[in-house]
User: Fold CASP-like protein from Olea europaea subsp. europaea.
Amino acid sequence: MAPPPSTAVPPLAALVVRILTFICLIISVIILATNTIKASDGVNEAKLKFNHFYAYRYMLSTAVLGIAYTLIQSAFAIFHVSMGNRIGGDGLVQIEFYGDKIVSYILATGAAAGFGLSVDLNSLPVNGSDIEDFLNKANAAASLLFIGFLFSATSSVFSSLSLPKRS
Amino acid sequence: MAPPPSTAVPPLAALVVRILTFICLIISVIILATNTIKASDGVNEAKLKFNHFYAYRYMLSTAVLGIAYTLIQSAFAIFHVSMGNRIGGDGLVQIEFYGDKIVSYILATGAAAGFGLSVDLNSLPVNGSDIEDFLNKANAAASLLFIGFLFSATSSVFSSLSLPKRS
Assistant:
């Protein structure tokens, strides 16, 4: 399928990248949101959930925002692939350009905040094997969010390349 | 000063944003690198430095990388402002586009990793006023790195808008 002359990037490629972003983000949210353990140090017992940590809460927020944005853009991309032209023309290309940039930055910060906390929590001496499990799952969620960010950064490169000709 | 026809963004504006990025990053590095306290809980005494935490070490690395990249790009921007044309033509515009994107993402993750750790360290019950000082300085460094990232993201928008016409 040859790309139509109105874009620099084949619309099917743009759609595939959006779908990959969506899949990574949704799995990341599921892993993070279901990450609950009962931690015990022999004396005290406590339930540990992701929302006890600000960094993981922020991570979840960024992933949910990313999912919402990616869904909307996927809808436009599906229209573009099936109809062969864009909704909204060059105005929407501008919105997509800034939207992709902002959302990909937000996803990058979400993954980094999660890693930033996990890595140093991991090096604390208080860890039990339950807590290690918890941190490993949090790291898995952050990794998937990071992969989602990479796809979203790819979308951002695509939408930059699709910008209308400068005057 | 009217912009030459070969760019969408006035070169002086691009240079000013580079310089602002540089200033923010250099202050962030100074604050972070000089952030040392002697923490004491009454029994044990220990010297606390930024490099005891992986997240802060990563933060410093990203800021240093950002400074190096911004210096190089500032040199090109100064040439552009003073001579009125670019070194390297459209090839360099491409490199600038991808370079700006990658470096601004790296700076975003650096700031977020720092915040991700500080915010949750702050909520731990073990804090003394010395440790609060330490975390406040780390937060100040992360904030400046974040502002530096915002300028660097602006550079990235500029370099996207300056991309050569698509064929």
Chain B has one domain: 18-161. Chain B is about 70% helix and 5% strand.
